[in-house]
Design brief:
Blueprint: H1 3-12, E1 14-20, E2 29-36, E3 40-44, H2 56-70
Antiparallel strand pairs: 1-2, 2-3
Bound molecules: zinc ion.
Amino acid sequence: MNLWQRLVFRLYGRLYIGHKTHEGWKGSLPHYIIECPTHGRVVTYPHGYSMRLECPRCQEEERENRSRAED
Ligand SMILES: [Zn+2]
């Protein structure tokens, strides 16, 4: 991160790093760096109807916990 990016990151808690696409996606979505209290800086993109930015590693762990609870 350069100085400007660090400033934006500190002000908004997220930093836009560009539009990216993934396999199976029709288009591209804006990707951001956010600070997760557990995992530190992670790259993520808006999820769901509310377009929330969530830590993908937290979501992954939540999914695992849920599937374990269903066993
Ligand atoms: Zn996390």
